[in-house]
Here is the input.
Amino acid sequence: MEIPASRWYSEIPKRRSRRQFDSKPVDPDHLARLRSVCAEFKPFPHARAVLVAESPDRLFKGIIGPFGRIKGASSFVAFIGNMESPYVQEEIGYMGEGILLEATALQLATCWVGGFFRPDVAAAVAGTGKNERVLAVTPVGYAKESQSIEERLMTGFGRSHQRKRLSSLVTGLQDTEWSAWIRAALEAARLAPSAVNRQPWRFYVERDNITVSVSGPGTEFSVAKRLDCGIAMLHIEVAALNYGIQGEWEFLKAPQVARFRIS
Here is the structure.
């Protein structure tokens, strides 16, 4: 499946994580479209997504952690990775964010959950094969019109949407020399969601490529930082494509993650 660049690019600034859902079922046509994207958007052989048309409440039952409880969604998507791939975390982030942007375009609410859910329950429902694990999930449904007190507390009354300045994230080519596609790609990457808004990515810019690195090793809040970087990678490519720029990703050794080089 080719990336629908203009469609997803327009959704990048709109998407917000929501945890409180209206219990009404998703429009069947929208559910069918999202299921189709889950089946067809497979940019990497070791990452796949499964849409499950049932409430994910039991994935989160009794589990709150620092993120707040998710309630009321009518469906969920399980993001499944084959652990034989050394790049499985960033592959899941890249693939999964495309599906979340498509859900946003369908006016459906979502929320990346990479920790504090029950992967064994998700695996039993979605189905996993040898060496596969459910690395993340997202509830899918219609968000309640207004945020609950719990959600507002979780977002710090809007502070979670704050982003670091590009000047603190980017090295390499001076910003006065950035082309239009590079500037758009970096701005899109800056808006990428990450666990507790930690924004663990760093970018090194050259004239024809952008290298994504991770700010530190390991996992925090039960979510790999490299998964967050995979989300930023998807935003970079969507923005580039929207500007008519095609390129390819090359995975790199830590602390670097991957390099996007134009074709």
